[in-house]
TrEMBL record, chain A:
<dbReference type="GO" id="GO:0012505">
    <property type="term" value="C:endomembrane system"/>
</dbReference>
<comment type="function">
    <text>F(1)F(0) ATP synthase produces ATP from ADP in the presence of a proton or sodium gradient. F-type ATPases consist of two structural domains, F(1) containing the extramembraneous catalytic core and F(0) containing the membrane proton channel, linked together by a central stalk and a peripheral stalk. During catalysis, ATP synthesis in the catalytic domain of F(1) is coupled via a rotary mechanism of the central stalk subunits to proton translocation.</text>
</comment>
<dbReference type="GO" id="GO:0005886">
    <property type="term" value="C:plasma membrane"/>
</dbReference>
<dbReference type="InterPro" id="IPR002146">
    <property type="entry name" value="ATP_synth_b/b'su_bac/chlpt"/>
</dbReference>
<keyword id="KW-1003">Cell membrane</keyword>
<dbReference type="InterPro" id="IPR028987">
    <property type="entry name" value="ATP_synth_B-like_membr_sf"/>
</dbReference>
<comment type="function">
    <text>Component of the F(0) channel, it forms part of the peripheral stalk, linking F(1) to F(0).</text>
</comment>
<protein>
    <recommendedName>
        <fullName>ATP synthase subunit b</fullName>
    </recommendedName>
</protein>
<dbReference type="GO" id="GO:0046933">
    <property type="term" value="F:proton-transporting ATP synthase activity, rotational mechanism"/>
</dbReference>
From TrEMBL, chain B:
<keyword id="KW-1133">Transmembrane helix</keyword>
<dbReference type="GO" id="GO:0005886">
    <property type="term" value="C:plasma membrane"/>
</dbReference>
<keyword id="KW-1003">Cell membrane</keyword>
<keyword id="KW-0472">Membrane</keyword>
<dbReference type="GO" id="GO:0045259">
    <property type="term" value="C:proton-transporting ATP synthase complex"/>
</dbReference>
<dbReference type="GO" id="GO:0046933">
    <property type="term" value="F:proton-transporting ATP synthase activity, rotational mechanism"/>
</dbReference>
<keyword id="KW-0375">Hydrogen ion transport</keyword>
<feature type="transmembrane region" description="Helical">
    <location>
        <begin position="209"/>
        <end position="229"/>
    </location>
</feature>
<keyword id="KW-0138">CF(0)</keyword>
Length: 172, 236
């Protein structure tokens, strides 16, 4: 065995070095053609695909985030709008109510006033009618009682004075 | 140990049949392994493809640790084949030794210094070739006088020590493993049944350890090859 270590000894087979050189190169070429080539190609393709997929996922996520934000904003806006609408409706209802009530008040007041004045007028009319009637009646009565002792005009003024006193007393 | 080998003379060169047959068997085994694992290459890898990709990633990692700037991509294939070939060669002699008529025909090819020197020659040739390709022949020569001129003899000497340490480290480890295995075998046969039983666990332990050593040495050889190549490819 020691002879193998001494170059130039008769036992040394330098052809082995040539043999391993050739066989190693052939092996490398075969491995490259049958396994290394396809597998590394596939590995590269996969890493490329993964990078692409990651990029795509990032893109999609930002897009989704944007959309969600937009939707949220829209929702918030619509809520505020709804509140505004309700408030407006409440306000207008309030003013309408107020105006209806005040209208009713004023109408009722007018009605009352009219009724009051009507009543006063009717009383006045009745009073003056009664005054005349009473004067004529009492004149007739008096003329019938004392017939021509007094003329009609004197009698009338006398009676009017009485009645005036009467009304003054009454108003007192 | 005291193995006998058959020699063939061809074109004025001597060929050791055992070495060449073992190299051939290792190469065929590596090819069958890689070929079987790469049959269905798909985007979603199956079990076999996963194993192969794991091995490729492993050797790519070795190249990348020696050449971190990504310039080593062209050596990925070389590192892969080198690692697998040395690994299979180291294990071959542990499981499969063929002796016919007193002549050894198949053993670990890496337990012979000429084979490991052949492998080291390939590595160093690659390193010199790519250095000349990168710097030109003049630049390649001037790299021997860098970083300072008086280091020229040391740099020249280093080429030889690199070659010798790279090849003899692998040879020594595997050869020693086989020698010890053969010694344990002789012990087993020496005193009949008693020593046979005693030597059995010893042989098993040493075989397991040799598997480990074989893997480590394949890794070391590939790593150092890449380191030598990367050293040739940078200017100090």
């Amino acid at each position: 065995m020691a002879g193998l270590l001494v170059l130039g000894a008769n036992q040394v087979a330098l052809g082995d070095m040539l043999f391993i050189l050739v066989s190693f190169i052939v092996l490398a070429l075969l491995v490259k053609h049958f396994a290394w080539g396809p597998v590394t190609k596939m590995m590269d393709a996969r890493s490329e695909k993964i990078t692409g997929d990651l990029d795509y996922a990032d893109q999609e996520r930002t897009r989704a985030e944007k959309l969600a934000k937009e939707r949220e904003d829209a929702l918030k806006n619509s809520r505020a709008e709804a509140v505004e609408i309700v408030n407006k409706a409440k306000e207008s209802g309030e003013t309408q109510k107020k105006s209806i009530v005040s209208d009713a008040h004023s109408e009722a007041e007018e009605l009352r006033q009219r009724a009051k004045s009507d009543a006063a007028k009717a009383r006045e009319d009745a009073m003056s009618g009664a005054q005349n009637d009473i004067a004529n009646l009492s004149l007739e009565i008096a003329s019938k009682v004392i017939s021509k002792e007094l003329n009609a005009d004197d009698q009338k003024s006398l009676i009017d004075s009485y009645i005036k006193e009467l009304t003054v007393n009454e108003t007192k | 140990m005291d193995d006998k080998y058959k020699f063939i003379e061809f074109l004025g060169l001597r060929f050791n049949v055992a070495n060449d047959l073992s190299v051939l068997v290792s190469a065929v085994l590596v090819f069958i392994l890689v070929f079987a694992l790469s049959r269905k290459v798909t985007m979603r890898p199956g079990k076999a493809q996963n194993v192969l990709e794991w091995m490729i990633d492993f050797t790519n990692g070795i190249v990348k640790s020696a050449m971190p700037d990504g310039s080593g991509k062209q050596f990925n294939l070389y590192a892969f084949v080198l690692f697998l070939f040395i690994f299979v060669s180291n294990q071959l002699g542990l499981f499969f030794q063929l002796k016919v008529g007193g002549f050894t025909y198949v053993k670990s090819p890496t337990s012979n210094p000429l084979i490991t020197m052949g492998l080291a020659t390939i590595s160093l040739l690659i390193s010199h070739y790519y250095a000349v390709k990168k710097f030109g022949f003049g630049g390649y020569l001037s790299n021997y006088a860098r970083p300072v001129k008086f280091l020229l003899p040391i740099n020249l000497l280093e080429e030889f020590t690199n070659f010798l340490t790279l090849s003899l480290r692998l040879y020594g480890n595997i050869f020693a493993g086989e020698v010890l295995l053969a010694l344990i075998g002789t012990v087993a046969k020496s005193l009949g049944a008693v020593t046979f039983v005693a030597a059995m666990p010893l042989a098993m332990v040493w075989q397991g350890f040799s598997v480990f050593i074989g893997a480590i040495q394949a890794y070391v050889f590939t790593t150092l090859s890449m380191v030598y190549i990367s050293r040739k490819l940078e200017q100090e």
